[in-house]
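Quick check before the chapter quiz. The format below is the same one you will see on the exam, so make sure you can read both the input and the output lines.
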Amino acid sequence: MKPIYILNGPNLNLLGQRQPEIYGRETLDDVAQACAALADELGLTIRFHQSNHEGQLVDWIQEARLEGAAIVINPGAYSHTSVAILDALNAFDGPVIEVHISNIHKREAFRQHSYVSLRADGVIAGCGTLGYQLGLRRLAQVLAPAR
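Here is the expected output.
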């Protein structure tokens, strides 16, 4: 089976250090390890990436068009600004799950709109880093007939 791409946007490399009262104390490495363990349990493979650069995220989404089964994406601040990421996701044929560690709907007004949500098949917000695992579990269900 093709891998599930788990893509992380800007500042997520600082997870566990940046605003832990909002984003928690787990690091992105902790999230990657938890996702890898769950993927093994579910019989899935993943490719886990993070970039602070919009173009790199677009490149990985385009790569997933050929090599990926699905995408879990936490676009960070690009959720609210990036038409380029939306356009790339619109060119991807597989399922897309959008993840936000915090509940963006309880935050500043500018964070309450996500361009990515216009393409996402599911949105998980406010569940902390558990949202990544919830996204993987959902994709395991969605992709099951294709396996």
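If your answer matched, good. The beta strands are 4-8, 46-50, 70-74, 96-100, 122-125.
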